[in-house]
Amino acid sequence: MSQHNEGGPEFRAPRLSCDSHFHVFGPTKDYPYGDDLRYTPPYAPLDEFLTFSRGLGFERWVLVQPSAYGRDNTCMLDAMETLPGCRGIVDVHEDVPDAELDKLNAVGVCGVRINVKPIKPPEPGFAATLLPRILRLDARCAELGWTLDFLLPGWLTQELMGTLRQLKSHFMLAHMGLFLSRDGVDQKGFQQLLDLLRNGEGRCWVKLTALYRMSVAPGYSDAGPMMQALVETAVDRLIWGSDHPHLSFADKTSTLELFNFFGRWVPDADDRHKILVDNPQKLFKF
């Protein structure tokens, strides 16, 4: 589904709004992919995306390293060079040299991904294998003032809930924690997430992104109550992102559709301003 051919936005993003999660993909001859591809990567240059994003009212952006490039962040860093003032979330080894982190920090990088395939089925003991990476990166991000960015299937988000409560750095859960919308607001894992937001240490942030990864209902209608519950629980620690270019879901959705959905389920202008402007400004230090 093209993001350009389905009418216009139902509201305009307020001044200084931030798209807090999107990806860029360059020509394959210049930016080779890694070995463990989850999808067929598209060509998705920065300038084409910015034209559309600015048309919605966005003025700030956070680029996120896609899994297709593994830990080679070159494509994203090259794009960041052409977009002054933007921020970036990289994927690096937990023992990357301090000097490399300092270089990344100097060009606007402000966080590291911990990225697990969203469709990975439950696997006993898998969560424990992630702990060394999580704890090492947590310590390093806390020193730098960076954010940990988790992309985890919902069952794994739930299994790691105790670990998340103990983190020293600020951290984000992409795609609303990836709890399946068909299981509703009352499912145990999502309720644990709400409790973490209410009663944790205030370091947990949730991305209102990629509804198509947790919903199969027409128009994502079953995801709306979950988004609403997050807004009612912790509107001061929510951020929104397009997840452009939507990868394997690009023929079924669009940035415009997701943007309009957000506007319908977050109708209060003050709440929108917090999610689009105030919260990313605080978290990413714009």
Write the layout of secondary structure elements.
Blueprint: E1 17-22, H1 46-56, E2 58-64, H2 74-81, E3 87-90, H3 98-106, E4 109-115, H4 126-144, E5 147-151, H5 154-159, H6 161-165, E6 170-173, H7 188-199, E7 204-208, H8 224-234, E8 238-240, H9 255-265, H10 269-284
Parallel strand pairs: 1-2, 2-3, 3-4, 4-5, 5-6, 6-7, 7-8
Helix pairs in contact: 7-8
Protein model, in words:
By secondary structure, the protein is an alpha/beta fold. It has one domain: TIM Barrel (Alpha-Beta Barrel), CATH 3.20.20.140. 38% of the residues lie in helices and 14% in strands. The protein contains 10 helices and 8 strands. It has helices at 46-56, 74-81, 98-106, 126-144, 154-159, 161-165, 188-199, 224-234, 255-265, 269-284, and strands at residues 17-22, 58-64, 87-90, 109-115, 147-151, 170-173, 204-208, 238-240. Strands 1-2-3-4-5-6-7-8 form an 8-stranded parallel sheet. It is globular, with a radius of gyration of 18 Å.
Report a brief summary of the structure.
With 286 residues, this protein is an alpha/beta fold. It is built from ten helices and eight strands. Helix 7 runs parallel beside helix 8.
Average pLDDT metric: 94
Structural class of the secondary structure composition?
Answer: alpha/beta
Label the CATH architecture.
Answer: Alpha-Beta Barrel
Question: Biggest sheet, in brief?
Answer: 8 strands, parallel
Shape, please?
A: globular
Strand order of the largest sheet: 1-2-3-4-5-6-7-8
Radius of gyration, taken over Cα atoms and rounded to an integer in Å: 18 Å
Strand content: 5-15%
Count of domain modules: 1
Instruction: Give the strand tally.
Output: 8
Count of alpha and pi helical runs: 10
Span of the ends, CA to CA: 32 Å
